[in-house]
Design a protein that fits this description.
Order of helices and strands: HHHHHHEHHEHHHH
Strand order of the largest sheet: 1-2
Oligomer: single chain
Helix content: 55-70%
Structural class: mainly alpha
Largest sheet: 2 strands, antiparallel
Shape: globular
Number of helices: 12
């Protein structure tokens, strides 16, 4: 998403946007009706982004409800890694569980039966990327580092762990899913663990709606860090 869409908005419009997205976290059904009067007040570019976000979130929303989200303890454990408090080495099981769940459902936004996920490759590449002294005190930077590592390791693909038979469209789709998962992990945890599914669906929707910017960000770690921090702050 172009930062100017948010930055250049009057405060009176920018604040309802954050309130709107917060409300969507606990909505039983994501739908365009949630835009309501606030949507009509938004500039067309922003309204279009929210419309795309809702549509992508709806595609993934039902699937996330079919599988129990990771426990609050697992989510908290991965959170301590991204915050720089704990190295990932003793938390391989938690990392595999959380990232496996997230990637599976983020990829569901644009279904493709030919893509698979390796929780082993996911966990190992995440742990290697954030092992000390690479781990920092900046959660968004850690998330960007992990995202690049997952992408380069081909944590998801036709043959996970390799780039075999992986076209450009599939690679970009996987990168958007990785971005969505990292954005999800950077947000504040919901009061009720069952709301994690909706929060992941919303994060996936935002990543899909910001596809061009997400694709470009994977070519520059600083841009990726900034994009993750900016979009996660909206949720």
């Amino acid at each position: 998403m172009d930062p100017r869409i948010i930055k250049d908005m009057p405060t009176a419009l920018a604040l309802p946007l954050r309130d709107l997205l917060q409300g969507m976290r606990t909505a039983a059904n994501l739908s365009e009706e949630l835009l309501g009067p606030a949507g009509r007040l938004m500039p067309p570019p922003l309204r279009d982004v929210l419309k795309d976000t809702l549509e992508a979130a709806e595609r993934v929303g039902k699937r996330t409800m079919e599988r129990t989200p990771p426990s609050a303890e697992d989510m908290a454990a991965v959170g301590t890694i991204l915050s720089g408090e704990t190295p990932p080495s003793p938390l391989e099981r938690e990392v595999a569980n959380v990232l496996g769940y997230g990637l599976e459902h983020a990829l569901a936004a644009t279904p493709d039966d030919h893509l698979m996920i390796s929780e082993l490759v996911t966990s190992l590449s995440f742990a290697s990327a954030l092992a000390r002294p690479k781990l920092t005190a900046d959660p968004a930077r850690n998330a960007a580092t992990a995202a690049l590592a997952l992408s380069e390791a081909h944590a998801a693909g036709t043959v996970p762990g390799t780039g075999f038979a992986l076209g450009e469209d599939a690679e970009q789709r996987i990168n958007r899913a990785i971005f969505a998962v990292m954005m999800w992990l950077l947000t504040d945890r919901p009061e009720h663990p069952e709301d994690e599914a909706r929060l992941l669906a919303l994060s996936t929707g935002l990543a899909q709606a910001s596809a061009k910017d997400v694709e470009a960000a994977f070519h520059d770690p600083e841009t990726l860090t900034s994009q993750l921090a900016q979009l996660a702050a909206m949720i």
